[in-house]
Amino acid sequence: MTGRVERWLRASRLTSDESVDARVQDLLESIRRGAERGDGESWDAANERKADEFLAWLEREFAGRVLAHGTPVPDGDGPVVVVQRQLLPPFARRTTRYNYAFTVPGRSPRRLVLVAHYDTWRGPGADDNTTGEEIVKQYLLAALRAERRPPLTHTYLLAGSEECGLIGFTSQLVLGVGLSLCNVAWAYGVYAVVGLSAVLIPLAMFRFGVSGSREYVRSLSPAERESIDGAISVDSVGEGRLYIPDSSLGATFARAFLPLEGHERLNDTLQEAAHLHAIQFNTYLAGGTTDHISFLEAGRPGAALVALAPGKASPLVFGGKIHTRHDTADRVYPEPLGQSLRILDTWLHLAQGGERLAEPRELDEFHYARLFRVRLRVGPGASEEWWLALKDAVEPNQRHLNAVYRVEVSLDGDRARCRANGIVGWGVETGLEREVADLVAERGEWERARVREVELQTPAGVVTFARRRHPRWAAVRAAGQRLRGWLESLIGTHSFLTFFLTAFLLARGVEQALALAFRWDAFQQVFFEWFWVGAMAVLVGQIATVVWLVGTRLPAMADNSYKHLSRADNLGSLRRDRGREPRVTT
């Protein structure tokens, strides 16, 4: 973390490392207690009992400030909470029967929602999702212990019946089998099976979960839904690398039929927060959904924080724990909990009008540059400026920050000497040109200045960015990276079509390979002598390959699109000349 970020955190009164560590320790203790049940008690009954006990404790701890749903909120500046214990209709019940909504009225009716499901499936659920449940409770208590009401209204939702039993690798297995059988049936003209598969495959992707949060959103009036500026779901953040999903199977399937707006803008905020705190994260979930999709379906901005590790969400894989008896408190770890708190702290700060970090890096901390001539419309005329777009591209997870500066330029042929004259803005776009285009927007137009070298005056001295030695070869490599990144991004945005096409092409490939093999009499004789063994081996091998592609390979490719598009941009940019490090000038 750079000095600028540390100073901004202190100035914004955002959490210090010491306070995050203390909060994480509180969470670990709460998670240990939350992942217990009484003798002879089912997990569903235990989860409901603990939610009721929390509500009773809240009424004792904050006597007179806990109001029943529908009670008028008193005047004053002290925080209060309005509690709704919502019974789910029978058709929406999967596990627990209730939602618990805790709304802390703010100085504005605009609303932020922090949601976590409190039900578990076939186990203690310490990670999935006592972690999210306890984080939501911690933020609720912080809001009630504050001196004043928050700037915006906060809703802390403990959602019931999020689980439905199919998760992770199991859902990928169902999807892979369905895709494979669909293509086999198609090849042999069994169109009734094809039609049945076409209906069941999307259901395997979307499943039947998140019904509790869906019922909560449906119960809101149109005005209440419209007031939601953002909803963040926190789910299973106790182990593994953090995910800030750009898409997931459930959300992608729903997006084909429903307008899911605001997801990208909210995700950008969470990802910027992760960048600022040097948090590694991924962006594509191979399977599974969580409660943010209920808000996306209603057209409100929604995003999620999830943590995954290899095998964590796969009960069929050795070491898997989610939805098993192995999801215990001793397998919940401090690091992803602390990362989640830092991101949520930053989101709440920015979403409520807090000051955004003006300049995330020092001028001598960047690695790539592009120079632009910008013409901005001002009244009836126009003004011309030089903008220098810079990229810090050495994040530990190959992600980066961009910053665009207004500069004074002295041109000497194809060499430019620049002095920064204030920052225009910053962001995390894959390309510097896109960052500039976003900042210019409809205010004017821009063009890239084709220079061979840029010398930037910084407080530490002069930093030089120069064209690569073999620019044509770099352009070819950039085109390849750009094509690869574009294709991988299509996997993420059109996952169902990609998975279906993959299974179809694999089935056609197997069919052609068998047709070729049958030209040899020896192969025919052996195959038909052992027909059932051979046929099952071919079918099982095909299904296993589809499951591997759907569950592992294709999601990894979708997640890597950012990396390849960023590399393409780097190859087309001026690169910092390490042979001419900053030299002190007078």
Describe this structure in words.
The chain is an alpha/beta fold. It has three domains: 3-163 and 208-235 and 255-351, Aminopeptidase (3-Layer(aba) Sandwich); 166-206 and 470-574, no CATH class; 363-466, no CATH class. The protein is 45% helix and 22% strand. The protein is built from 18 helices and 17 strands. The protein has helices at 3-11, 17-34, 43-61, 126-145, 168-187, 191-206, 211-219, 222-226, 249-255, 263-276, 292-297, 334-351, 432-440, 471-493, 495-517, 521-529, 531-559, 561-571, and strands at residues 66-68, 81-87, 98-104, 108-117, 152-159, 228-235, 241-247, 281-284, 302-308, 368-378, 381-392, 401-412, 415-427, 444-448, 453-458, 461-466, 574-576. The strands form two sheets. A nine-stranded mixed β-sheet has the order 1-2-3-5-4-6-9-7-8, with helices on both faces. Strands 10-11-12-13-15-16-17 form a seven-stranded mixed barrel. Helix 2 (17-34) packs across helix 4 (126-145), helix 10 crosses helix 12 (334-351) and helix 15 packs antiparallel against helix 17 (531-559). The chain is flat, with a radius of gyration of 27 Å. It starts with a helix and ends in a 10-residue tail after the last strand. The model has no long low-confidence stretch (mean pLDDT 84).
In a nutshell, what does this entry contain?
The protein is an alpha/beta fold and 586 residues long.
